[in-house]
Design a protein that fits this description.
alpha+beta, globular, 11 helices, 6-stranded mixed β-sheet, 12 strands
């Protein structure tokens, strides 16, 4: 009996948990750029109610403008998350809220446009990112900084999730983008924002990270666009660019049962971005 108990403890120690998922329930994560704090603070109640309705276990937020840690704590309670952390209290903060405790590993501002959060939730590393919206060379630098942090974790077989607003296109969407020629239209208006060779996203994909929406939705082209909603483009919502992503290590990706860009009437009132979600089975298999 003692030997059996020791073996059980050893096996549990060697198998990192998948966040807060249990044998009875799947786990859901959500990332959402909420446009200057929920459409310039005009849709805070709508946004909070919408997030509560998603019943996500983990929520990553970008553009939490005007928010302090206390204000975020009170807001997260509206969708039943008692744990939260904000990167900073000025500019364009990213934030993370959770049903379970959050361990802050790093709040990085140096060398970053907006900065990133590196946290752990039940043993899984979470990177909440918001890369430069207008400077390709800055995005490439930021991706390099993040890749240098993520690569050793993947090499050590740690569980890793990188999610947020990457402000770049993906090589996985190349044919879709070329079909619509939306990339060329955008780059003509902002030439220094061009992303030749998809360099930024390739820095993440080359690590072995998996783009969950692409792996679960392609070739369903309607699901690809995450920007803009009809809040700023009523004629073609979501038909321009997929720039919001959820990336994970390969093992975690195998346990993903669904990943998609969420679309309903409410999100058009909350932000110019569509939110992205991913759902996982309780226990990833090695």
């Amino acid at each position: 009996n003692h030997l059996l108990l020791r073996l059980t403890i050893l096996l549990c120690a060697c198998s990192p948990p998948l966040l807060h998922a249990t044998e009875e329930a799947s786990l859901k994560i959500l990332t959402y750029n909420v446009l200057y704090g929920f459409n310039h603070q005009k849709a805070t109640d709508v946004g909070a109610a919408w997030i509560k309705g998603q019943q996500a276990d983990l929520v990553a937020l970008q553009e939490m403008n005007t928010y302090t840690q206390d204000k975020l704590t009170n807001l997260a309670k509206k969708w039943d998350h008692p744990h939260s952390v904000i990167l900073k209290e000025k500019g364009f903060p990213v934030a993370l809220t959770s049903k379970t405790p959050i361990e802050v590993i790093e709040k990085r501002l140096q060398g970053m446009w907006h900065g990133y959060l590196h946290c752990k939730v039940n043993g899984t590393h979470i990177f909440v990112v918001h890369l430069s919206p207008s400077k390709h060379d800055v995005r490439v630098r930021e991706a390099g900084i993040l890749a240098a942090k993520i690569q050793p974790l993947l090499a050590a077989k740690e569980r890793v999730i990188v999610l947020g607003d990457f402000n770049c296109n993906s090589p996985l969407d190349k044919s879709w983008l070329e079909e619509r020629q939306s990339t060329d239209e955008w780059r003509k208006k902002s030439p220094e924002n061009a992303d030749p060779g998809y360099v930024t996203m390739n820095k993440f994909l080359s690590l072995g990270l998996v783009d969950l929406v692409h792996s679960k939705q392609a070739p369903d082209k309607v699901q690809l666009g995450t920007f803009p909603t009809n809040l700023i483009n009523p004629s073609r919502p979501g038909h321009n660019w997929r720039i919001d992503f959820i990336l994970t290590d390969p093992l975690l990706a195998k346990s993903c049962t669904n990943a998609s860009t969420l679309r309903d009437d409410a999100v058009h009132k909350i932000s110019d971005h569509f939110p992205v979600q991913a759902t996982f089975t309780p226990n990833p298999q090695r």
